[in-house]
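[RESIDUES AND BACKBONE]
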Amino acid sequence: QVQLQESGPGLVKPSQTLSLTCTVSGGSITSNHYYWSWIRQPPGKGLEWMGAIAYSGSTYYSPSLKSRTSISRDTSKNQFTLQLSSVTPEDTAVYYCARDDGRMGALDAWGQGTLVTVSS
Protein backbone atom coordinates (compact mmCIF):
# COMPACT_ATOMS: atom_id res chain seq x y z
CA GLN A 1 0.00 0.00 0.00
CA VAL A 2 1.45 3.34 -1.03
CA GLN A 3 2.15 5.87 1.69
CA LEU A 4 3.01 9.56 1.35
CA GLN A 5 4.66 11.80 3.92
CA GLU A 6 5.16 15.56 3.71
CA SER A 7 8.16 17.24 5.29
CA GLY A 8 9.48 20.77 5.48
CA PRO A 9 9.51 23.93 7.58
CA GLY A 10 6.37 24.83 9.46
CA LEU A 11 7.11 28.55 9.41
CA VAL A 12 8.16 30.66 6.44
CA LYS A 13 8.70 34.42 6.34
CA PRO A 14 6.82 36.60 3.85
CA SER A 15 8.53 36.99 0.46
CA GLN A 16 10.55 33.80 0.99
CA THR A 17 10.15 30.50 -0.83
CA LEU A 18 8.16 27.67 0.73
CA SER A 19 9.70 24.27 0.06
CA LEU A 20 8.10 20.94 0.91
CA THR A 21 9.07 17.38 0.09
CA CYS A 22 6.82 14.37 -0.23
CA THR A 23 8.44 10.99 0.37
CA VAL A 24 6.62 8.06 -1.21
CA SER A 25 6.87 4.48 0.00
CA GLY A 26 5.19 1.34 -1.21
CA GLY A 27 5.15 2.50 -4.81
CA SER A 28 7.31 4.24 -7.37
CA ILE A 29 6.71 7.78 -8.54
CA THR A 30 7.67 6.62 -12.04
CA SER A 31 4.94 3.97 -12.22
CA ASN A 32 2.74 4.43 -15.26
CA HIS A 33 -0.60 6.23 -14.94
CA TYR A 34 0.13 8.03 -11.68
CA TYR A 35 0.32 11.76 -11.07
CA TRP A 36 1.77 13.18 -7.88
CA SER A 37 -0.03 16.25 -6.66
CA TRP A 38 0.23 19.06 -4.18
CA ILE A 39 -3.00 20.34 -2.64
CA ARG A 40 -3.51 22.90 0.09
CA GLN A 41 -6.26 24.00 2.43
CA PRO A 42 -6.11 27.45 4.03
CA PRO A 43 -7.75 27.78 7.45
CA GLY A 44 -11.51 27.82 7.10
CA LYS A 45 -11.41 27.33 3.32
CA GLY A 46 -11.69 24.51 0.84
CA LEU A 47 -9.06 22.38 -0.85
CA GLU A 48 -7.03 23.95 -3.64
CA TRP A 49 -5.13 21.86 -6.18
CA MET A 50 -1.75 23.47 -6.80
CA GLY A 51 -0.08 21.25 -9.35
CA ALA A 52 1.28 17.81 -10.15
CA ILE A 53 4.17 15.93 -11.63
CA ALA A 54 3.43 12.93 -13.79
CA TYR A 55 5.10 9.53 -13.87
CA SER A 56 6.82 10.78 -17.02
CA GLY A 57 8.17 13.88 -15.31
CA SER A 58 5.80 16.28 -17.01
CA THR A 59 4.44 19.01 -14.75
CA TYR A 60 1.05 20.68 -14.52
CA TYR A 61 0.14 23.78 -12.52
CA SER A 62 -2.91 25.64 -11.39
CA PRO A 63 -3.19 28.77 -13.56
CA SER A 64 -3.63 30.94 -10.49
CA LEU A 65 -0.37 29.73 -8.93
CA LYS A 66 1.69 28.86 -12.01
CA SER A 67 3.92 31.92 -11.83
CA ARG A 68 5.03 31.07 -8.28
CA THR A 69 5.00 27.26 -8.26
CA SER A 70 7.57 24.67 -9.20
CA ILE A 71 7.27 20.91 -8.74
CA SER A 72 10.23 18.60 -9.24
CA ARG A 73 11.23 15.08 -8.33
CA ASP A 74 14.16 12.94 -7.24
CA THR A 75 13.54 9.47 -8.58
CA SER A 76 16.53 8.04 -6.71
CA LYS A 77 14.85 8.98 -3.42
CA ASN A 78 11.28 8.44 -4.63
CA GLN A 79 10.42 11.99 -3.60
CA PHE A 80 8.78 14.98 -5.19
CA THR A 81 9.08 18.56 -4.09
CA LEU A 82 6.97 21.72 -4.06
CA GLN A 83 8.43 25.19 -4.18
CA LEU A 84 6.17 28.22 -3.83
CA SER A 85 7.92 31.57 -4.16
CA SER A 86 7.12 35.04 -2.86
CA VAL A 87 4.81 33.74 -0.16
CA THR A 88 2.39 35.94 1.77
CA PRO A 89 0.27 35.23 4.84
CA GLU A 90 -2.48 34.16 2.42
CA ASP A 91 -0.34 31.12 1.62
CA THR A 92 -0.76 29.85 5.18
CA ALA A 93 -2.40 26.45 4.83
CA VAL A 94 -2.20 22.75 5.45
CA TYR A 95 -0.29 21.34 2.51
CA TYR A 96 -0.95 17.81 1.31
CA CYS A 97 0.75 15.60 -1.21
CA ALA A 98 -1.41 13.03 -2.92
CA ARG A 99 -1.46 10.44 -5.69
CA ASP A 100 -3.80 10.73 -8.62
CA ASP A 101 -4.56 7.57 -10.53
CA GLY A 102 -4.82 8.89 -14.06
CA ARG A 103 -6.91 5.90 -15.15
CA MET A 104 -9.59 6.78 -12.61
CA GLY A 105 -9.14 10.54 -12.42
CA ALA A 106 -9.22 10.27 -8.66
CA LEU A 107 -6.90 11.01 -5.76
CA ASP A 108 -6.46 7.63 -4.14
CA ALA A 109 -3.72 8.22 -1.56
CA TRP A 110 -2.90 11.21 0.62
CA GLY A 111 -0.25 12.29 3.03
CA GLN A 112 -1.34 13.40 6.48
CA GLY A 113 -0.72 17.05 5.65
CA THR A 114 1.60 19.62 7.13
CA LEU A 115 0.72 23.09 8.36
CA VAL A 116 2.82 25.88 6.94
CA THR A 117 2.42 29.31 8.46
CA VAL A 118 3.66 32.41 6.67
CA SER A 119 4.54 35.04 9.22
CA SER A 120 7.33 37.38 10.13
Observations:
- The radius of gyration is 13 Å.
- The mean pLDDT is 96.
- Residues 1 and 95 are 21 Å apart (CA to CA).
- The first strand starts at residue 3 and ends at 7.
